[in-house]
Amino acid sequence: MEIKLDTAKDGLGSLFKPYQAMLLEHIWELNADETVRIGSGRAHEYLQGTSEKMSRASVIFFLNDMVDEGVLGFDDRTGKGGHHRIYFPKMSREEFAQHAVKQVVEGVAKTFPEDKMVQRFADVAMDSLMK
């Protein structure tokens, strides 16, 4: 999954669709004190109680994209209907922020290979993270 930055939005909304940002925040909140695993069904149910009602397939695709990105991990469980992935965070919110900044800086470096431009971008990004 390619991380794209929308500078017109704030927080995780600048990187994800609203339901995706809500879901990641929810998973991180569940895991504030201990590791809590969440299945796609439970994730989908959470969204049904919000303004961001999405299909279960959309939820599964997003969770699997986050696995591919290294943000989430999963355990494979068997149960009614076959195998199911049970997801958990591999990155904290802070670690994800660093990961996202790195991806954006690398994207800028490809677009503007001039060393000064990349360094300036990196300085601004790090300054805003430290606030």
Task: Describe, in plain words, how this protein is organized in 3D.
The protein has 131 residues and is of the alpha+beta class. It has 2 domains: 82 residues, Orthogonal Bundle (Arc Repressor Mutant, subunit A), CATH 1.10.10; 40 residues. Helices cover 54% and strands 14% of the residues. It contains 5 helices and 3 strands, in the order H-E-H-H-E-E-H-H. A hairpin with a 2-residue loop joins strand 2 and strand 3.
Assign a percent range to the helix content. 40-55%
CATH architecture assignment name of the largest domain: Orthogonal Bundle
- CATH topology type of the largest domain: Arc Repressor Mutant, subunit A
Count up the helices.
5
Biggest β-sheet description:
3 strands, antiparallel
CATH superfamily (homologous) name of the largest domain = Winged helix-like DNA-binding domain superfamily/Winged helix DNA-binding domain
Rg calculated over all Cα atoms: 17 Å
Output the strand order for the largest sheet. Answer: 1-3-2
Distinctive features:
Arc Repressor Mutant, subunit A; alpha+beta; elongated; single chain; 2 domains
